[in-house]
Amino acid sequence: MLLEMGQSHLFEHWPEPGVDDEQKRAFFDQVARLNSSYPGGLASYINTARELLADSKAGKNPFDGFTPSVPSGESLTFGDNSFVQFEETGVREMQNAAFVLVAGGLGERLGYNGIKVALPRESSSGTCYLQHYIESILALQDASSRLVEGGSPKQIPFVIMTSDDTHARTLELLESNSYFGMNPTQVKLLKQEKVACLDDNVARLAVDPRNKYVIQTKPHGHGDVHSLLYSSGLLNLWRHAGLRWVLFFQDTNGLLFKAIPAALGVSATKQYHVNSLAVPRKAKEAIGGIAKLTHADGRTMVINVEYNQLDPLLRATGYPDGDVNCETGYSPFPGNINQLILELGPYIEELTKTGGAIQEFVNPKYKDASKTSFKSSTRLECMMQDYPKTLPPTARVGFTVMDIWLAYAPVKNNPEDAAKVPKGNPYHSATSGEMAVYRANSLILKKAGVKVDDPVLQVFNGQEVEVWPHVTWKPKWALTFADVTSKVSGSCSISQKSTLVVNGSNIFLEDLSLDGALVINSVIDAEVKVGGSVQNKGWILENVDYKDTSAPEEVRIRGFRINKVEQLEKTYNEPGNFCLKA
Fold first, then answer.
1. Is the pTM of this model over 0.90?
2. By C-alpha distance, which of 425, 496, 493 is closest to 458?
3. Coil, helix or strand for 78?
4. Which of 231, 465, 209 is nearest to 348 (CA)?
5. Which of 184, 221, 400, 512 is 20–30 Å from 54 (CA)?
6. With b meaning 16 or more CB within 10 Å and e meaning fewer, what string describes 250-286?
7. Would you give per-residue pLDDT tens digits along the chain (582 residues)?
8. What's the 3-state SS for 379-441?
9. Could you say which DSSP state residue 303 is in?
10. How far apart are the C-alpha atoms of 260 and 90, rounded to whole Å?
11. How far is Cα 264 from Cα 432, in angstroms, rounded to an integer?
């Protein structure tokens, strides 16, 4: 097969039989793995690569012949009646859902050597991303079974896509923490394989420069999640169990679960086959826009168009100003945040046709304008959000837009890169990610009637951020806005320097005035009413320079540590009714 596919160069420097036979066998073991892990095998990979490399060399625009327009979708306003209704519908629907986390990446780009899901979402409670995600899914599972009459509690399946880089460490994080309270049988890890690298425009496979018996490989991208789910057999098991939705999300967005209930409510109400979570996007902002593309031949698709392609595409199709803000002050094309909700039935139908293959792209770095040779080997890549490209025109593909403060705070840039971001643009760093959690929680409490002091501006690692009161709660305390309003009453106030950590489900804030740090822990059957005036020296943020190697990496990349000067901490380990009146 390799010889037929023009890969004879792989064998050029092989010695005669009897020499290096073990290494030669290992070579074919690798070829067999590369062949079986790719839909259609290596021959299909090489053929696709040749087509895409020829298009790339010719400078062919993948959107030629397409005209963009604004697709249909729902724009939600946090806390209004329709938002609350969508949230309730979403929670009810949760027992028919499965969650898929794509977590194949390490934190190197962040200046962190571990897996990204092990990073703390915020430092007040120290909860890591993976724990927060699992506790959110468990809380949704409980809330959903409470809403559905007479239904027995259903376990929500949770799949994590890992890679060679993250698999062992993800498993270790789960096992050493008893799966953060989830039943281990609920969690499935699917490991994505890498794909072969390509040396030139005729798609000759690249040999590892250190070992002629090894083909060089690189990651294929998170689009692999679709073929892995298809080949795992899980999708049909889910369908037999009566599930209806698959929710995909990425590894370090600490706000995502605040948006998920309402977004699933939109999917269920609008009966969307595909629902992309989106945020308002400024024109030309460096985030992909969701657009409907209509081809001259009648084909249509609703798809993420990368920001550097959207503006030229609009200019080329009768929009002389390109990507501009409309009367709302934002681009009419919402910003894609790579969180998808797919309806399971149509999803299985589509994958049965495609085998889970997602339309790929290639991004070679050429040595010069002749485009004849590469600076380094390239490979085919695919993205999870390109799934709708192959859907029939009858597919219902929509989006749900929510405020950025509620839904989107990715952590992906290291301190140096974040400090170079132009003022007013998002930092997307560990610093801004933590501050975004406090801001969202403070704004939600404010909307629920709590008097929350305005934030102050502070600089950490060269980034100026708004510092709100450090408010954080466990998902089981409140998943939706209605949950928050049911747990807060009377006249409550929180000063800017305060910290509030809520670890328990039945904790009620009644006429609480907080100026300092308050930590409440309670077991499920303890009902705790918290009120009165709590005043102490509180917890203080102290600057840490990211170059200071004496501090742990997860602290350095934030630029601060918390000095816990003074707090009121109460723990209720027994069932019963309790009152904390300070």
1. yes
2. 496
3. coil
4. 231
5. 221
6. bbbbbbbbbbbbbbbbbbbeeebbbbbbbbbbebebe
7. 999 999 999 999 999 999 999 999 999 999 999 999 898 999 999 999 999 999 999 988 888 899 999 998 999 999 999 999 999 999 999 999 999 999 988 888 888 889 999 999 999 999 999 999 999 999 999 999 998 877 677 999 999 999 998 999 999 999 999 999 999 999 999 999 999 999 999 999 999 999 999 999 998 999 999 999 999 999 999 999 999 999 999 999 999 999 999 999 999 999 999 999 999 998 888 889 999 999 999 888 899 998 888 988 999 888 889 999 999 899 999 999 999 999 999 999 999 999 888 999 998 999 998 999 999 999 999 999 999 998 988 999 999 999 999 999 999 999 999 999 988 789 999 999 999 999 999 999 999 999 999 999 999 999 999 999 999 999 999 999 999 999 999 999 999 999 999 999 999 999 999 999 999 999 999 999 999 999 999 999 999 999 999 999 999 999 999 999 999 999 999 999 999 997
8. CEECCHHHHHHHCCCCCCEEEEECCHHHHCCECCECHHHHHCCCCCCCCCEHHHHHHHHHHHH
9. E
10. 8
11. 27
Q: Rounded to a whole number, what is the distance in angstroms from the first to the last CA of the chain?
A: 77
| Token pair in block for residue 120 | 């703390």
Residue type, 136: S
DSSP string, 84-119: HHHHHHHHHHGGGEEEEEE---BSGGGT--SBGGGS
CA 383 to the chain's CA centroid: 13
Whether residue 508 contacts residue 132, with contact meaning beta carbons closer than 8 Å, is answered with no
Which amino acid is located at 429 in the chain? S
d(CA 472, CA 452) in angstroms, rounded, equals 14
State the Cα torsion 134-140-146-149 to the nearest 10°. Answer: -120
Kindly give the pairing relationship between strand 488-489 and strand 97-102.
unpaired
Measured N-to-C along each axis, helices 256-270 and 81-93 cross at an angle, to the nearest 10 degrees, of 90
Residue type, 449: G
Round the CA-based radius of gyration of the chain to a whole number and report it: 26
Contact 520, 501 (CB under 8 A): yes
CA distances from residue 238 to 229, 235, 245, 385 in whole angstroms, order as listed: 11, 5, 9, 21
Contacts of 66 (CB under 8 A, 6+ apart): 293, 294, 295, 313, 317
Residue 568 CB contacts under 8 Å (≥ 6 apart), including other chains: 516, 517, 518, 519, 534, 536, 582
**Helical (H) or strand (E) element with 487:** helix 481-487
d(CA 144, CA 93): 7
- Token pair recorded at residue 404: 């950025």
Q: Both tokens of residue 424?
A: 């007013």
- The angle subtended at Cα 247 by Cα 244 and Cα 251, nearest 5°, is 160
